[in-house]
Predict the 3D structure of the following.
Amino acid sequence: MAADNLKRRFHVVIPCAGSGSRVSIGLPKQYALLNGVPMVVHTLRVFQSVKGLAQSVLVVAPEDLVMGDVLRQWPQSEFFVSHTGGATRAQSVLAGLNALIDKGVGLDEWVLVHDAARCLLTPELVEKLLLACFEDPVGGLLALPLPDTLKEESHGRVGKTLDRSGKWLAQTPQMFRLGLLRQALVSAGQSVTDEASAIEHAGFSPLLVPSAAFNFKVTYAEDLQMAQAILSDRSRSTHSPT
Ligand code: CTP
Ligand code: MG
């Protein structure tokens, strides 16, 4: 049983040091209120409800004054805040991994990196990723087979239609061992926009774990409305009499 528990242990890094410029609500988008609760709290509650969650980190910008207040109002026992966010997502994630190492987390432990703005993630999807990757030598990510026809642009018009078979949209969480991911991010540099790209750059092939369209990232203002609608619908179905 103890060995089983150890096998299930995982840590989470949530990069939160972006400015949310495309949503444009005057503060980073993870603080937008959805059903009266900040978006990031919805995200954290998902991980808090999954068995095996161990010490985890929220990486915010050095000047962020909001996250401390949020966690005082909505405490999340496994998460601590690190004011070490960088200029790129890759830098913020790397800072989060270093913060975990500073807390004594081992290089061979599993880390799930997840965008704060994917607040519609479910415990079931996290479980699916964990189950698929725990025994995997590399790790993997949630992803969605491309649903639409794919066009390549040429001067504002269709240049050509690309073959969509075998194309996937990368989501998060993305799950890798701390030491491998840290090394991969250091080598890949600033330009990678997800962890899997860094792992690929290091010569490995992450596992694709089929996800769901609802696990989208809130990027534009209309995504906020969609997230709000889905969360309201979920909370109605949780509270409706059976
Ligand atoms: N992120 C980060 N550090 C950065 C840039 C982004 O920690 N320097 C985080 C964001 O806070 C977010 C996640 O990475 O949780 C995904 O990035 P994105 O959706 O691009 O968020 P923002 O950068 O905040 O939004 P925008 O690009 O519209 O400004
Ligand atoms: Mg960004």
In short: Residues 15-22, 28-29, 59, 85-89, 92, 115-117, 217, 219 surround cytidine-5'-triphosphate (ligand 1) (CB under 6 Å). The radius of gyration is 18 Å. The chain has one domain: 3-237. The helical segments are 2-8, 39-48, 67-73, 89-102, 123-133, 178-188, 195-201, 221-239.
